[in-house]
């Protein structure tokens, strides 16, 4: 396995936050409504990890270091793990596993439907992230995994709907997402290696 210490470092950095948050929730150190804080943190953590995962390809092109790509799949799977914990925490701490309340929540808060669509998209990407799926799907695999851009849009819309009163933090994540999407535009993506090559020549 290439870059073992780097992989372990990324694993540790991504695993420690949910463990810390759940510990804080059960230790009553997240304020008067720990369940809601936990749900919010896991949801935001999912979005941040999704943005970090999308950074891996541009970083690899800019630096030429393959280590970024080596942890891309791991980060994507952690992103899915976070959204699973986000959904579980919502069902446990907000609904109390009262399934009859779920229909009421869906009618009152349509952003939950948007979040659920994002979850289903991440589920598809997680299930097909293995090498068997890559071989089985062939060229369709890349097309399928472009779904990540739609998921990013759904995640940002989900967050926007929740934080309508304060858009400053949301704007930061939306700007980062817009930049990462622009870097995927073929005309721009082709220029990244050229810019790196020019920098190396100047050095």
What are the main properties of this structure?
83% helix, mainly alpha, 203 residues, globular
Characterise this structure.
It contains twelve helices and no strands. The chain is globular and about 50 Å long. Helix 1 (4-26) runs parallel beside helix 4 (72-94), helix 2 (34-63) packs antiparallel against helix 4 and helix 2 (34-63) packs parallel to helix 10. The chain has one domain (4-202). The chain has helices at residues 4-26, 34-63, 67-70, 72-94, 99-108, 111-127, 131-137, 139-145, 147-162, 168-182, 186-189, 191-202. The two termini are 32 Å apart. The chain has 203 residues and is mostly helical.
Brief description of this entry?
This protein is mainly α and 203 residues long. The chain has helices at residues 4-26, 34-63, 67-70, 72-94, 99-108, 111-127, 131-137, 139-145, 147-162, 168-182, 186-189, 191-202. The model has no long low-confidence stretch (mean pLDDT 89).
């Amino acid at each position: 396995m290439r870059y073992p210490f780097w992989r372990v470092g990324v694993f540790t950095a991504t695993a420690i936050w949910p463990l810390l948050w759940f510990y804080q929730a059960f230790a009553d150190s997240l304020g008067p409504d720990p369940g809601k804080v936990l749900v919010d943190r896991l949801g935001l953590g999912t979005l941040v990890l999704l943005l970090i995962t999308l950074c891996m390809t541009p970083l690899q092109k800019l630096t030429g270091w393959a280590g970024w790509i080596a942890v891309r799949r791991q980060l994507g799977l952690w992103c899915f793990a976070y959204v699973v914990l986000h959904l579980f925490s919502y069902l446990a701490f907000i609904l109390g596993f009262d399934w009859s309340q779920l229909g009421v929540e869906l009618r009152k808060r349509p952003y939950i439907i948007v979040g659920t669509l994002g979850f289903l998209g991440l589920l598809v990407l997680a299930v097909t992230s293995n090498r068997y799926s890559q071989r089985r799907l062939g060229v369709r695999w890349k097309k399928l995994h472009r779904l990540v851009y739609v998921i990013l849009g759904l995640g940002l819309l989900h967050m926007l709907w929740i934080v309508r009163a304060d858009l400053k933090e949301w704007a930061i994540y939306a700007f980062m997402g817009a930049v990462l999407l622009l870097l995927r535009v073929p005309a721009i993506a082709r220029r990244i290696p050229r810019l790196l090559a020019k920098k190396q020549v100047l050095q």
